[in-house]
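Working notes for the structural subgroup meeting. M.R. asked for a predicted model of this chain before we commit to crystallization trials. I am recording the input and output together here so anyone reviewing the notebook later can reproduce the run.

Input as submitted:
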Amino acid sequence: MADVLPASRAEIIASYKTLLRSFLERRPSGLRGRLAMALGKHKSFVSQIANPAYAVPIPAGDLPIIFEICHLSAQERQGFLDLYRRSEERRV
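Returned structure, recorded in token form:
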């Protein structure tokens, strides 16, 4: 059996951003705007932090606001945080 190579930090960031994008897509319309307003950012910022093509991590200070505005369940939060923490462990 082949050894599984650990995911790069960029791959892990892409994974949690894909998760965030799925959360946003399953919620009512207008959520990106409400999230942008709560974060004090423009809607394009929300699109960027939910786009797995951008390897820039989501600021840790924004996570509580994201969780609150997106109404994430405990299981959704845990899955997201598990990936987020893994990406932070890979910081150079």
